[in-house]
Amino acid sequence: MSEIPESKIQSVRNDFPILSRTIYGKPLVYFDNAATTQKPRAVIDAISNYYLNDNANVHRGVHYLSQQATGAFEDVRKKVAAFINAGSPSEIVFTRGATEAINLVAWSYCESFLNVGDEIIISVLEHHSNIVPWQVACERKGAHLKVIPVTLDGELDMEVFGQLLNDRTKMVAVSHISNTLGTINPIAGIVAMAHSKNVPVFVDGAQGLSHGPVDVQELDCDFYAFSAHKMYGPMGIGGLYGKASWLELMQPYQLGGEMIEKVTFANTSYNEIPYKFEAGTPNVADVMGLGAAIDYLQGLGWNFITSRENDLLKYATTRLLEVEGITIIGTASKKAAIISFLIDGIHFFDAGTIIDHLGIAVRTGSHCTQPLMDILGINGTLRASMAFYNTRQEVDKLIDAIHRVKTLFA
Ligand SMILES: Cc1ncc(COP(=O)(O)O)c(C=O)c1O
Question: Which partner from 25, 124, 190, 344 sits 20 to 30 angstroms from 177, CA to CA?
């Protein structure tokens, strides 16, 4: 049993107003946290407080509100930097989310450093957002995309990775945690191998920052992308960590606004990092929400979060495997609380629809990982992705719902 008292879990659940609503007359069971997590009241309040009391454009005004907004905005940048242990706040670029951060690097890095015949290595596990930008960059530059395969358990095949790395490799781009299989990839090992060949590593951390502490200096990765909405913060904001030595060398991705230092009709010079990569008015309100999400996570502490999620992962895995005809897809030795599964003879959409009508939100489909589905020889899965606010009782409800599905299709 989890050693955390029930009263503590209930008080954490009370921080999330949406968790007390009903769906089709049943209490909501929310198991779609890998798609987006729910938001605590502190995050919602930070956004509305900004618009109610503090709204002003940042960086451009001498007036009180503008200076106050600028200070608060830059304080969140410092908070993000401390949260992931970046060397300096100037290594944190605010973006719309992980996808935009990946596109930024795939464009800006490749524009300067990718040439005909070069290679970029990704993995079979990647989300479309960490495939297509590199694929298109390769097409644009006449380079080649190489793909690390996975073992039967859903772990990256590190031996093949070692064979793929060579003098033509210009980037390794891999996810920290697979959104489909839950596999936690050995990032530090990947970085060590890539760096031994002087190849930088980009980490898609969309699923990484919500499940456990991330220390980018310890990982020694060159880039790390994240989305606030997957870590209990708002949609529409996220960020990119990039080592200053790379960000300094890269071309700006979008042009105009705060990324400018000086404009004449003859030519333009660019602002220093990170502003060089932040064109136009930023999403200040949601940056406030991101700051509140980090405060909230730090208030809970990683011990609470990881022990809750590990308990739920173990419990849900055991209970699912007790049901006849269930196959779990992805059985890596190091996993986050994300479980993809299939029910023998029942299409995942049919099962997901019935489960939904019982008030339980699970995701169905390819989870934006179609190439992985192709390799696995399936069209999709059901996916239950859990957060610290979920409970064993909710897992029991999912198991009951699966039995109901099986009865209906018997
Ligand atoms: C592993 C991974 N990478 C990238 C993304 C894209 O994130 P966003 O849509 O927030 O940009 C997701 C979203 O599900 C993801 O799970």
Answer: 344
Task: Enumerate the domain spans of the chain.
Answer: 6-39+301-408, 44-298
For ligand 1, say whether the CB of 108 is within 6 Å of any of its atoms: no
Distance CA 389, CA 366 (A): 25
206 in contact with ligand 1, CB cutoff 6 A = yes
CATH assignment, 6-39+301-408? 3.90.1150.10
Candidate from 96, 129, 283 with most ligand 1 atoms within 8 A of CB, to mutate: 129
Ligand 1 atom index nearest CA of 235: 10
Q: For 188-245, write each residue's pLDDT tens digit.
A: 999 999 999 999 999 999 999 999 999 999 999 999 999 999 999 999 999 999 999 9
Can you spell out the DSSP letters for 28-83? -EE-BTTT-----HHHHHHHHHIIIII---SSS--SHHHHHHHHHHHHHHHHHHHH
Confidence at residue 6, expressed as pLDDT on a 0 to 100 scale? 83
Distance of alpha carbon 217 from alpha carbon 209, whole angstroms: 15
- In tens, the pLDDT along 135-182 reads 999 999 999 999 999 999 999 999 999 999 999 999 999 999 999 999
Q: Is the CB of 80 under 6 A from ligand 1?
A: no
Reply yes or no on whether 368 is catalytic: yes
Ligand 1 pocket member 97 (CB < 6 A): yes
Q: Considering the entire predicted model, what is its pTM?
A: 0.97
The residue contributing the CA closest to ligand 1 atom 15 is 206
pLDDT score recorded for residue 7: 87
How far apart (Å, rounded) are the C-alpha atoms in residues 391 and 6? 9
pLDDT, one tens digit per residue, over 346-398 is 999 999 999 999 999 999 999 999 999 999 999 999 999 999 999 999 999 99
CATH among 3.40.50.10890, 3.40.640.10, 3.30.70.1230, 3.40.50.2300 for 44-298? 3.40.640.10
Computed from CA positions of residues 354, 31, 42, 242, in that sequence, does the dihedral angle turn out positive or negative?
A: negative
- Mutate which of 175, 229, 230 to test ligand 1's pocket (most atoms within 8 Å of Cβ)? 230
Residue nearest to atom 12 of ligand 1 (CA): 206
Query: Is the separation of the CB atoms in 160 and 123 below 8 Å?
Result: no
CB 346, CB 405: distance < 8 Å: yes
The answer to whether the CB of 207 is under 6 A from ligand 1 is yes
